[in-house]
Amino acid sequence: MENPENEIPSIIHNLTQTPPSVQRQTIETYFTPDASFLHPFCRTGSFFGSRWLIWMIYRWYKIMSPHIELTVTSVAYDSKNLILYVSISQVFAIWFIPFFRAPVSLTTVLQLTHDPSTEKYYITKQNDLYQVDQFLRFVPGGWLFAFVWQFVATGFSVLGALLLWPVSYVEENLMLKQEGGTVRHVGIDESLELKER
Fold this sequence. Notes:
Elements: H1 4-17, H2 20-30, E1 31-39, E2 42-43, H3 50-64, E3 69-78, E4 83-92, E5 102-115, E6 120-129, H4 132-135, H5 142-163, H6 165-178, E7 182-183, E8 192-193
Parallel strand pairs: 1-6
Antiparallel strand pairs: 1-2, 3-4, 4-5, 5-6, 7-8
Helix pairs in contact: 1-2, 2-3
């Protein structure tokens, strides 16, 4: 890639929506031979030839869902650290499960490397990040489990915070005594004056 931020949407579409030959050519063109892939359901590790495993993962992905609806919703490029952050929405429909469609959103983090001899960027690591409720959508009914669990966990958080309020009280008062009545927040220039209770 010469311009990662502008080129990555078309690369992602080639990886997910093209015939096998184009898909393979895309992987061989833009991924390093030792590139790694990390997803909630699979990983490759990084070693010479691991790029072939990435191609196999993408092949299986297309075999499972031959017609993927996919939109790259945003791209952010951290040029200092050579990292692309790509927000993606897709609809994954497994061909052998009738009427099953999994609309999911994810953020893909792509670690790049720069080759000074060609002035091009290559992908060395792909990390697909899904919220739990999103990757459970691949499992029929899985999203419902995540949805209920998230509310149950919120309830436990509220209950724990209310029952263990003395811990917060002690922490607050110890900090005030140690800081002489002033608490300075990291990244804020002004101090907040808090009175001891």
